[in-house]
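--- STAGE predict ---
source: upstream dedup step, 1 unique chain passed
mode: sequence only
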Amino acid sequence: MLLPGNTNPVRAQAPLPNSMAAAGDSLTSAMGSGPRYFADNTGYSWATGSNPAVNSLALRLATRNPALSGNVYNLARMGARMGDLSAQMGTVNAIKAEYVAILVGGNDACAPAEAAMTPVETFRQQFDTALARLAEGSPGARVLVLSIPDPIQLWALYRDNRSAVAIWTLFDVCPTALARPRSDAPEDAARRERVRQRVADYNRQLAEVCARYSQCRHDGGAVFNTRLEPADVSPYDYFHLSARGQARLAEVAWAVSGFGP
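--- STAGE serialize ---
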């Protein structure tokens, strides 16, 4: 059974940060969202991007606090899993960022096979280790943690699209969720549901661990529950977000950040 994300209690708006870092994987480095087809396009990132069309979290914050401009860092790396987050938090500590946006975990579920998905308890321990490292090295840093998107949405959107199916197959894109996309066989339907449940379980760990740290704010499942439209997905691989998708993610992040509207 899927478990809903925990919603943080209402908090007073915090002071605006003078520096910001984003951590995570290729969703945050904006792969596929800009002119570099299969590379990072950090200017289009929902978190730190400079492109006005995306209107990133950093741009929105800089509008209110110009001191943030020039003090924004994107530490996300293609292929990163939860086990990589602690090293990224070490870099956050080194640059002394006052605000940290995190979106990571999709690659823990998008493994070559179900058996290779990160166990839920391991995922939790790795996330706790990362936040503990940040809390020790940057005790004043505030954190926004976004839930992992639902990968089965992509299957539902594009399972009948020949280009998408061809690219997913050729490049082995998220095979746990997207292998044999046109199959309605019981074993394939059950596999997809198990993957979706694993992502929901990861998201529960993100919410519970975040709640243990006073400076951490979780999105309450907002990203997981956001319904994607075809225009939100990159036509390069039918997996990453387009520029419009990054803009939608920025909007969701802003709404749960505590700094809006």
